[in-house]
Specification:
The complex is a heterodimer of chains A (about 290) and B (about 325). Chain A has two domains: about 40 residues, no CATH class; about 220 residues, MetI-like fold (Orthogonal Bundle), CATH 1.10.3720. Chain A starts with a helix and ends with a helix. Chain A is about 75% helix and about 0% strand. With about 290 residues, chain A is mostly helical. By secondary structure, chain B is mainly alpha-helical. Chain B folds into two domains: about 50 residues, no CATH class; about 240 residues, Orthogonal Bundle (MetI-like fold), CATH 1.10.3720. Helices cover about 75% and strands about 0% of the residues of chain B. In chain B, helix 4 runs antiparallel to helix 11. Classes of the chains: A mainly alpha (about 290), B mainly alpha (about 325). At the A-B interface, helix 1, helix 2, helix 5, helix 6 and helix 7 of A face helix 2, helix 4, helix 5, helix 6 and helix 7 of B.
Chain lengths: ~290, ~325
Amino acid sequence: MAKQTDDQVVDTQGMNYLVSLPRRVVTVYVPLAAFLFVLLFPFYWMGITTFKPNEELLSREGNPFWVVNPTLAHIKKLLFDTSYPDWLWNTMLVAVVSTFLSLVCSVLAAYAIERLRFRGSRYVGMSVFLAYLVPPSILFIPLAKVVFELGIFDTRLALILTYPTFLIPFCTWLLMGYFRSIPFELEECALIDGASRWQILTRIVLPLAVPGLISAGIFAFTLSWNEFIYALTFISSSEVKTVPVGVITELVEGDVYHWGALMAGALLGSLPVAILYSFFVEYYVAGMTGAVKE
Amino acid sequence: MPCRRTGATATEGEVRAYVSRLLDNRNALGLLFLLPAGALLLLFLTYPLGLGVWLGFTDTKIGRGGAWVGLENYEFLFGDAVARLSLFNTLFYTVVASVIKFALGLWLALLLNKHVPFKTVVRAVVLLPFIVPTALSAIAFWWIYDAQFSVISWALTELGLIDRYIDFLGDPWNARLSTIAANIWRGVPFVAICLLAGLQTISPSYYEAASLDGATPWQQFRYVTLPLLTPIIAVVMTFSVLFTFTDFQLIYVLTRGGPLNATHLMATLSFQRAIPGGALGEGAALAVSMVPFLLAAILFSYFGLQRRAWQQGGAD
């Protein structure tokens, strides 16, 4: 294993030894540093604003890139004077439940499409991909009507049931790819040994597809955490709002923007996904590129 | 399990035999496995899609069922200056943002494919803008673009490049370009990481062969990298165009369509007309009118780029 990685390193180096260091600095390091600066600056700005007292925020004197007297006042205001903790809890609940629901549905559907090979499974597979291409912004108006008629308007259930519309197609598509890579022979052996289809799915296919399940789960969780337009349309009571919608609709009051509290809200709302992502980077990237590559 | 009546056992056995026969039939079992996903998608995806098309032909308002009005909504939208402006904005936003996202994303992917220190960390960090909720990072941009306290204006003033703070979101063209910049910021990591995955599948021996034949770095990029990358570029850009065209969050948070509707996209306008405005029929018609453009964009980037892959692929 170690040898293989060594070989790969040597391989990717390729003809790099021909490129001199000054040239590398100009063509690689400087542009890369510029990219990183631009991509990360908004997060730095979010963080620094969170801890800045109001006087420093609203003065043009001094260096805005640093904070002289850090304060926790904005976070305190956010956690104790607004419904922010409720929104965090709602977002977490909706994201976890809808991800779990979508995973269960997707595993069954992907296994059926990829391995049961029932009549018409090709067309079902194609329609799953097409469903993935339907954007929420053309769906939210009729969906609002459906949600209203079902009597679940302004409840968390509305979000839990509508998020799978974009999660299931994505997860199914991803899992179909994973199931395809599992050898048929394993299933045939199990069939000969008298296993039922259900046993094959739970005892053979699923354990082998764990990386795929993690990829799909992480991706689905971040997608539902980040969802905005459905939550904005279907929810109106403060206590059932999700973080993105709550921050936008409730923390922006009148003409005076509480930038400190807004940035604290953005920072705290971004942290859970960022932390989760940092633990599962490889799975996340595999999920994202896997869905595109197929 | 003791049974009182033999009749019951017989039927139970028959039922069990029938069920096990059913579970051996792949069509029946396939249907059963598809049921949960299918039911959810039919109720919350397919049905609303059809309902949306139907609503577009009615004058439905919130709290009042509508009557069939034929093409009236579409005729009205066609004559509506704001709707036409939103179409222009959407096309401008999509074209400019997608082209720049592609160029910068490809450049970033090529950079990340080089051998640099802390490669894995850099790659992980690059994707952050794509991970965090867009609505929340848009607030950070809102603050960065603030008319009075913008840090960009501050830096440019300190450098002596401008003498007045820039009104990023108050002037129509500034607002358009600022929202596009924020969209690019969010989209570049996605394009870059996906293209990087494609780059990693290209064998280094091609480059070695090319440089032995005396190809310059530009020629290597043009005649080795680009042709081999074209299929994945097609898919990535299809997704990128799709997401950009239907973008909602960024505009809603940064400008709500203002100033003077200069940044209204079709998605934000249909939200404004349908939900706060209450005109569900009109909003649905506006949303439905995005579909042909989306289909055209998908077909163009998919087939357009695929054919090039085939042309450059070689002999046949």
